[in-house]
Design a protein that fits this description.
The complex is a heterodimer of chains A (139) and B (72). Chain A is mostly helical. Chain A contains four helices and no strands. By secondary structure, chain B is mainly alpha-helical. The chains are: A mainly alpha (139), B mainly alpha (72).
């Protein structure tokens, strides 16, 4: 596949987030199905997910940087990044507003934290998917 | 008349051929973008900024309208 460093970077970030968030949600689902919904029980899994995400990003970007001739982006990368960001940022906004409403309604903070977490990750994943789509299909 | 909705085609592939089969990488280096962006421009997947369009025309020594045209 003929890809620039920035496109490869988008793929690496996307893979890391899907693996990290997918792993966390799997373990969180198991805990919740066992009736556990206290936040401290989830922290180790969240920390593990973040470590996995960072590790995949570091290893992936180093490997790609070694192989690629240039790691510099250009105007096309900037345009694709800006457009993808502007079309995905609303997801985080909806999550934050939802969290505020949930707090007003006295929803347990466990759910508020997860609403914020999922909206943050979803926003980022959609942004990266859009970037990959724009790189492949044109902009 | 507004040409909105029309695609922009270009003669970059032909111009590269007539300039000693200039590589996409060589052109990219001269205009300050990545080779993948030159490839996207050539393939009609990306319309460059005015600045990059002028740089491409300058490299080939052609006026802008001989490099880029509306595909009517």
């Amino acid at each position: 596949m003929d890809t620039s460093f920035e496109e490869k970077s988008a793929w690496i970030q996307l893979a890391s987030l899907v693996i990290g968030l997918g792993g966390y949600l799997s373990f969180a689902g198991i805990l919740m199905s066992n009736g556990i919904n206290v936040l401290p029980a989830f922290v180790p899994f969240l920390v593990a997910a973040i470590v996995v995400i960072v590790a995949i990003n570091v290893v992936g970007h180093v490997a790609v940087a070694i192989k690629n001739r240039s790691v510099e982006g250009d105007e096309r990368d900037q345009l694709i990044g800006c457009r993808a960001e502007s079309q995905s940022a609303w997801i985080l906004g909806v999550g934050v507003i939802g969290a505020i409403i949930a707090l007003i309604l006295s929803v347990h903070y466990f759910w508020v934290v997860h609403l914020l977490l999922i909206s943050l990750f979803s926003s980022e994943i959609i942004k990266l998917v859009l970037q990959v789509v724009y790189y492949r299909s044109g902009i | 008349m507004s040409p909105s909705g029309e695609r922009i085609r270009n003669q970059i592939r032909e111009l590269r051929f007539h300039h000693g089969e200039m590589t996409q990488q060589h052109l990219a280096d001269q205009i300050g973008v990545t080779r993948q962006t030159v490839n996207a421009i050539e393939g009609g997947k990306y319309s460059p900024s005015l600045e990059v369009a002028f740089k491409i025309a300058y490299v080939f020594g052609k006026p802008l309208e001989e490099v880029f045209q509306f595909d009517t």
